[in-house]
Amino acid sequence: MIIDGVFSGGGLKGFALVGAVQELEEKGYRFQRLAGTSAGAILASFLAAGYTGKEIESMLTEMDFQSLLDPRKTVIPLPFMKWIALYWRMGLYQGRELEMWFLEQLARKGVYTFADLPPGTLKLVASDLTNGKLLVLPDDLEQYGIDSGNFSIARALRMSCGIPYFFEPIRLQAEGETIVVDGGVLSNFPMWIFDDEEGGRERPLLGIKLSRRKEEMQGRTIDNALHLFEALFSAMKNAHDEKYIDRELEKDVVFIPVDDISSTQFDLDEGQKDSLLETGRLRTRQFLNTWNAGSPIRVIRGGKIG
User: Fold this and answer.
1) Which one of 4, 128, 182, 241 is the catalytic residue?
2) Predicted pLDDT of residue 164
3) What is the pTM of this model?
4) Does a cis peptide bond (omega within 30 degrees of 0) precede residue 190?
5) 87: how many CB neighbours lie within 10 A of its CB?
6) Nearest to 141 by CA among 126, 130, 154
């Protein structure tokens, strides 16, 4: 069956997304259009380029993710210098190694820019902090005077994955300088992205979200500044999307709980990777037992749902 897919952000938790895709492929599902934020954007891009779930698993399990962490070299090699660099550069790591890795993996499939893919098949979400708005790539690039077709997908991924303070933000040079960071700041799970102006969809849409259902989530314990920042960032990430995903739309979402792994845990061991993959497979298998992908597509016209 041909479907559209949307994947949430979640950093290194994204291994669970790969397991979910593998289960879908085994059951005969194929994606026509793909979208995602951060980790979800990476998976969407690799799938759009022609990788299978098994190929992506091999790629990720062989990767030393800590090699992607590239702090800037300082003249004075003292520990406190990285915090000074953080103040001026707005991130602990440059993110160049990460972008280069994206470029290398996509190049293996002959994909470099959005023009190398069928129009409309891939959409990635980033956050424009300069203008305080959501940025859908490649669609919104024309607003910045940038040719969307010739824009590098690796660069778009780097924008979507720019975790604030962890990676330096991208400085998009268009009509002035625009600071762009992780799409999760404004929309970590863009289930709305393929809806038309009247709320309709061309084909069944499946979302895969790295979290529990809203009613299953527990409150946070906040007793220090770090906990406060984590809670604040989490609330920002989820506020927009939770408002959109109502009870009716939840039936098209696979929820994968991955509470015990940090999004920036770049030192995952093999056991943790396997556990995430298996959790994604299991949750998707359970979901597909009851999912009716052939049910009527939600369309809103003249105040009626048909």
Assistant:
1) 182
2) 84
3) 0.85
4) no
5) 7
6) 126
CB-CB contact of 135 with 159 (8 Å)? yes
With H, G, I as helix, E, B as strand and everything else as coil, classify residue 299. coil
45-70 burial, b at 16+ Cβ within 10 Å, e below that, comes to bbbbbebebebbbeebeeeebeebbb
User: Which tokens hold the place of 122?
Assistant: 């891939």
Digit-coded pLDDT (tens) for 162-199: 988 788 999 988 778 899 998 888 899 999 999 887 77
Tokens describing residue 57 = 């698993």
Active site includes 196? no
Give the type of residue at 181: V
The question of whether 38 is a catalytic residue gets the answer: yes
Neighbour tally for 12: CB within 10 Å: 21
Q: Which of 4, 8, 38, 211 is catalytic?
A: 38
Neighbours of 208 (CB within 10 A): 27
